Amino acid sequence: MRITANQDRCVGAGQCVLVDPEAFDQNDADGTVIVLRPNPGTEPEIARAREAVNVCPGRTLALVEES
Ligand code: SF4
């Protein structure tokens, strides 16, 4: 699984950081998302990644299967 982030859509709301501060951070300058852990491996990591995708108000994040 891989987390993708479309920076153009990020509104800097920080909901992803609240869900999983080990996986997401925000750019100091403009608040846009920084993906710290783009490849969640364990079930809890994947579950939190899914939650972050769901709560993101900008529809910035996606969780995609790696081929
Ligand atoms: S929740 Fe979405 S819009 Fe907000 S900082 Fe994270 S990626 Fe950006």
Automatic annotation (TrEMBL):
Keywords: 3Fe-4S, Electron transport, Iron, Iron-sulfur, Metal-binding, Transport. It comes from the Bacteria. The keyword Metal-binding applies. Its cofactor is [3Fe-4S] cluster. Residues 1-29 form the 4Fe-4S ferredoxin-type domain. InterPro entries: 4Fe4S_Fe-S-bd, Fe-S_cluster_ET. This is Ferredoxin. It comes from Streptacidiphilus cavernicola.
